[in-house]
Amino acid sequence: MPEVVIIGGGLSGLVAAITARQAGLSCVVIEKGRSLGGDGNYVEGVMGVDSRLQQQAGITIDRTRLLQDELNYSHYEASAPHLKQLIDHSGETIDWLADQGVKFASVGPQGKSWPTIHAFAGGGHAAVATLVAKARQLGVEFCMSTSTQKLLQTAGHLSGVEVMNEVTGQTTKIATDNVILATGGYVDNPELVKKQTPLSDRLMSVSDGKSTGDGMQLAWAAGAMHDSMGALQFGGGAIFDPMLPPFMHMTSEIGVAATQEAILWVNQVGDRFVNEDVNDNMCHAGNALLGQARTFAIFDAEAVKHLSTVGLYKAVGNSPFSPDTLSKLPDELASDLAAHRKYLAKADSLETLAEQLHLPNLVDSVAHYNQQVAAGVDADFGKASAYLTPVKDGPFYAVTLGVGMACAIGGLRIDTHNAVLNAHGYPLPGLYAIGNDAAGMLVGDTYAVTLPGSTAGFAAFSGRNAVAAIVQNK
Ligand SMILES: Cc1cc2nc3c(=O)[nH]c(=O)nc-3n(C[C@H](O)[C@H](O)[C@H](O)COP(=O)(O)OP(=O)(O)OC[C@H]3O[C@@H](n4cnc5c(N)ncnc54)[C@H](O)[C@@H]3O)c2cc1C
């Protein structure tokens, strides 16, 4: 009988599996997909404080100020002990990842944030490949295309799991004393997401489709507390295309221009509604966009020329990697217009564009906006003057915007050993949750992109932390 069964072979599950084997525990990973790594494959970077890399780069962070800042950001809905524990151990977690062979390209801030994001060299795919190789080398057993159906309990104690082969439908029981839930949260479960926001039709998951909230539902069925469902991690504005899935636009330069360059945004009637440089915090941008019924980015021929040949108006804040220019922008516009993609509109005059999109106030809004651009002051919403760029020279373009969601966290309450708590706040013996399944404890209603890389940082930290508790209880 394995000493630990880990449900989910994503970022947190892989870290837990390696740590378990290094501690001499026998370990099986149950993964419902055909591949490993989960959304860890898309992660750009991991949060850390006082890592070796930061020390080399001369980056110092006042941990107490950081903790207070994040607690204030969450309106003290985040748990101070959990946040402090993550901050205190995040640097050594980065060092541990590096010791397993994971390579980092850089460390620094993301938009207006603390300088905590350690960007993976080669992206999440490279990091996952390294961790998978390490896990296999250590003898971790992976059961692929196998989902967990039920947690088994005997006299109130966890005694195993019932799993199902997704191909054959065959079910099997695996006895164990320790189960770690690492199923990646619930971003791909529309029913659960809908509970978080009334406008969920404009929310698009950019996950791999497998984060369906299984961990929390398994735990709830076993008596776990239904804790506040935490935050959705908005990826800021995103192209809202009824014809293609969101991931098809992930590398789109039209998307960068429309969402990252702080150009004019208007709503369903053509009114401006926010300082567009709010995109420095992609969750704030997501909240602002979701507050409207429809949203559009509006720009002109001069903006296309500037962005594609001269340079960006604004460094891309949502990525550690910012391009110099958007050289593919003219070609992308031409090809998507030729393909009649519904998210994109073009017209020689603003009047025609307004008519096409049914935006009665657009022409007046643009005239008013251009006056503020000429004066160099956004008296309406206070956007930085550097990003006040006019909308004057046709042809004019409109990109329909929705909001991308990278992950949805929360649903369970854990103690500082990552043990899952029951409705009375006591640990369910043998049951642990890590990664997105447990990360709701770290945030309030708005995900903390002020501490960039924190989901991945917590995934790695919590994987190690849960195993340390199992070793201690042995
Ligand atoms: C596009 C994108 C970019 C992101 N970038 C970042 C970033 O730069 N920094 C950051 O901090 N975070 C980022 N995230 C958030 C990311 O979700 C987490 O950082 C990380 O992947 C969480 O790890 P996890 O182990 O909880 O979930 P995952 O890595 O998603 O792993 C969950 C695994 O559980 C499996 N699973 C689910 N249900 C079951 C079941 N019933 N039985 C068995 N297996 C199951 C899934 O198939 C999956 O393999 C990003 C997310 C996305 C989608």
From TrEMBL:
In terms of domain of life, where is this protein from?
A: Bacteria
State whether keyword Flavoprotein applies: yes
**GO molecular function terms listed in the Swiss-Prot or TrEMBL record:** steroid dehydrogenase activity, acting on the CH-CH group of donors
Is Translocase included in the keywords of this UniProt record? no
Extract one GO BP annotation from the record: steroid metabolic process
**Membrane spanning segments where?**
none
Q: Enumerate the cofactors the protein uses.
A: FAD
- SUPFAM superfamilies for this protein: FAD/NAD(P)-binding domain, Succinate dehydrogenase/fumarate reductase flavoprotein, catalytic domain
Key words of the record = FAD, Flavoprotein, Oxidoreductase
What Gene3D superfamilies does the database record attribute to this sequence? FAD/NAD(P)-binding domain (3.50.50.60), Succinate dehydrogenase/fumarate reductase flavoprotein, catalytic domain (3.90.700.10)
What Pfam families does the record tag this protein with? FAD_binding_2
Outline the extent of the FAD-dependent oxidoreductase 2 FAD-binding domain: 4-441
Specify the protein name: Fumarate reductase
Q: Which organism is it from?
A: Lacticaseibacillus camelliae DSM 22697 = JCM 13995
